[in-house]
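Internal tracking record. Fields below are filled automatically when a chain is submitted to the structure queue. Please do not edit lines marked as system-generated. If the sequence contains nonstandard residues, flag them in the REMARKS field before resubmitting.
Queue: standard
Priority: normal
Entity type: single polypeptide chain
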Amino acid sequence: MKKSIILLGVFALLISCTADITGLNVNTKEPTKVPSAFLFSNAEKAMVDQMVSTSVNFNVFRLFTQQWTETTYTDESNYDVATRTIPDNHWRVLYRDVLKDLVESKKVLQSEPAAGADELGAKANKEAIIDILIAYNYSILVDTFGNVPYSQALDVEVNPTPSYDDAETIYKDLISKLTVASSTLDAGYTSFEDADIIYGGDAASWKKFANSLRLKLAINMDDVDHTYASAEALAAVTDGVFTSASDNAALKYLSAQPNTNPIYVDVIASGRNDFVPADTFVNAMNALNDPRRDSYFTQKSGGFIGGVNGSNNTFANFSHIGPTLLDPTFEGLIMDYTEIEFLLAEAVERGIAVGGTAEDHYNAGITASFAYWNAPGVAAYLAQPSVAYATAGSSWKEKIGNQAWLALYNRGFESWTSYRRLDFPVLTAPSQAALTEVPKRFTYPANEETLNGSNASAASAAIGGNTLTTKLFWDKF
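SYSTEM-GENERATED OUTPUT FOLLOWS
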């Protein structure tokens, strides 16, 4: 009895000394505020995963440009994106998992203390890098859908049903923001360091990325407004774009899940045999005796055989995806030197004085691709009449478009963008496809039509119809 009285007395004393016990409800192992660097890393990972994935629930761009085709379930090779609500998934990842985290990262960063020149300089660099990645992701959304929520996006409390902004207006604002971010970055200061899983916090690399993205957006716009596009492309090149493969923007994956290359997850770890190289792509490389085939594909019966695009294909009867891509640690590229050289070749042909000749940049793009894939014989390849710039095609769009398509293997989205801008290579829709042509955009997500219907309908009308064949504002020809 005496012991019980003592314990009650101690308990009463504790209660009297601690009137506020609400802190007992706080889980100290689950912080309510996440550091800006964590949000930034998470956004980078989600972004690269989405762009390099081959899951038919999220990324079907390799199928659109007939680099790959399917074996048993061929809906996506035949341009059916509605069955698995692919537009909804692409939209959701970029807005919710990437852009929302980037915006939150910037908000948290602005509240984090910084004192002295070094900390203030690092903070300014971090904000600029976040702005660059925000611009990159909005450019992907515009290049996928056309008009999208922008000025009212990502604030559900203020704008639960955001309006859609004009795609060209968004593009110009993105170029302006990239210009400011590029000029803000100072290589004399650090940034996110190890939390940046693409460039390790290197400000100079992010500056080149920003300028290279400016160049790409400007080239996309050239058929719409040549004067504006020329000025912006020249300014981007002057400020410094990619000049070698060491500038590539890539995420280095790890050997263990969940941090492996998504292609490994979708093709190997899943235990499924859903994809083979498409005959459209393989036959084009066979015709050129392209040495990159050994890196891109496996051989079948002593040669390279692609599955019939859009048809059911028995996996064992065809070449397979090359082992380089299936390595769990294979990097995920979102922009590379090869792509930039082809853009510079276009710029010259479009009358933009970026320096060098179209042939120089075309050859540099092909050479960079060979080097990236460790393929031999680039000099002999370039000397073939069907490859040499002077004789490869009847127009510069055909020459650059065909070779960019081959070089942008495993860059499905950019291959699709290049195809839409140049209309080469000539691709024919499969006979059983839902369309008679290659899709020019994604339709708006079904969720948008349900939850934000009036704004989605207005956007559909503004772009000329919510169909897969409606061209984007920059796809003029």
